[in-house]
Each structure stands twice: as C-alpha cells, then as structure tokens.
Amino acid sequence: MSTRRHAACPTAPDTARDDRGSGAIIAVFFAVVVLGLAAFIVDGGMAIAQRERAMDIAEQAARYAAQDLDEEALRAGGTVGINFDNCPARVAEFVGEVSLSSASVTGHDCTAHPPDEVGVEIVVTYRPVFAGVLFNTLQARGSATARADTGTPPAP
Length: 156
Prior knowledge:
The chain crosses the membrane at residues 23-42. By secondary structure, the protein is of the alpha+beta class.
C-alpha cells in the first residue's frame, strides 16, 4: 500500500486562517451591548423606584405635618389652621424615623400654604449599580402637599 501526499490546491484561498478570531470579536461586541442594556434597565428601574420612594416619603411627611393643628384656635372655636412654625421640625422628625437600606434622605423642606395646606419636598440620595462607576451618587426629589380638613367652626 502506498501513500500519496496531495499538494495543496494552489487555486483555493486559505480562508481558514483569515477567519480566526472573528467570532470572538462579535461575541465581545454583543457582550458589551448586553451589559450596557442591563445597566440601563437596572439603573433606570432604580431611578424610578427612588423617585417613587421620595414621593411616598414626601406624602407621608406632609400628612404628618398637616396633623399638627392649632389647638388654641380649636378650643376657642375659631378657624383652625396648621401650626406652620412646627412644620420643619415635624418633617425632620418623620424623616428621622424612616429607615432606608439602599438610599438616604439628604434633604427636606417644608413650605406653608395658609391657612390649611402644607407642602413638603424630600431629596433622596442613592448610588446606582452600574452607573456608579461614572457617578458617585444621584438624587431623586419628591414633593407633596397635604391639606388639613378642619371643617367650619360651629355656630354659637
């Protein structure tokens, strides 16, 4: 039995060597694209959640501040309003009791809307998951207004 060696066909191009690594480049490109989309989805969802959290805290703090009614006016039978002087302290007290695991309330403001409304603005600071490489922290703001329904004073 004899063995024959075949010479490589001189007219066939050597494409096997030219295509090496092209699949790896495509795989790396798509991996980067998928990671970018994942970062967008995760951090975008976190931004929405933190905004909702700031709104929730602002709503509850506004309700808490609006519950501080002027007792002297109530007992005197006059027009009952909110103690606006206590508003910043009441909001700070409520915010101090709120415990957040992945974020912190870094700012709050209380504005009076006489005679029976109070507005609260809350700033929540959080650190994004993927965008944390570019940004140290981000802020989400929420504001709400609460109205104390005091009714009309009874007729004498």
